[in-house]
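Collaborator request log, item 7. Partner lab (contact: R.S.) asked for a structural prediction of ABC-2 type transport system permease protein to inform their binding assays.
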Amino acid sequence: MLAALVVGMVVFEALIVVVANAIPPGQLFTAGGKGPPSAYQAFSGSSGDVSIASHPGLLGAGLTHPFWIAMQLTAIGSLAAAAVAADVESGTVELVMVRPVSRTRLLTERTAALVLAALALNAAATLAVAVGVALSPDIHRQVPIGGVFAAGLMGWGFALCLIGPVMAVSAVGRRRAQVIGATIAIGAVGFAVNFIALAWSPAAPLRFLSPFHYYTPGDALAQGGVLWPQLGILVGAGVLGLVFAHLVLQRRDLAP
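Returned to partner:
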């Protein structure tokens, strides 16, 4: 599964770079002399300073596209569900523990596997975009290579922001469906909340509840550096979730 996701990520990001190089972004998202709506900031991965009708915005769209989100959610949801909840649901967790394997070791090793899987996905996307930018002088004039790697680091922070809470759900839950549901709620619903908050001003305060408010690859691509405050919030949310998962797993009943 992971190999297929990595290949799909590389192909998709390469396609985004090809489109950005072949067609000026301004022609894709402007009509009648008007720029794209402000809600399109959600698709460009920007807090408002970068338009999707630009090379940084279009490449940022490739790093916040529903396809990109689906790839991330597939890896995180399936592996997080298998971490604890799936073993509890099937009744195999007691067999694992009898070796004996401590609860801390169980969760730590499976969390590490999930973090490495997320790192592989984001590294694949980052390298695909970096190669494309390096081979395209027009794009490179607006997007520094450092910005590409900064956006990739932000993507890994976003993945960690999802991993922490869904691992906590896996540590608490008894069904893998609960973990998959939590993954979708944080990822897909989080994107929808951010989009609504950008499109409808009365809902603007809701953007702070979405990880996509802090994951802004378009800004990182345009500025050429990591947005440390946003990255800190993403990583901090993930770490808190993992700490909670460890605390809960030490005390819960693992009987199916």
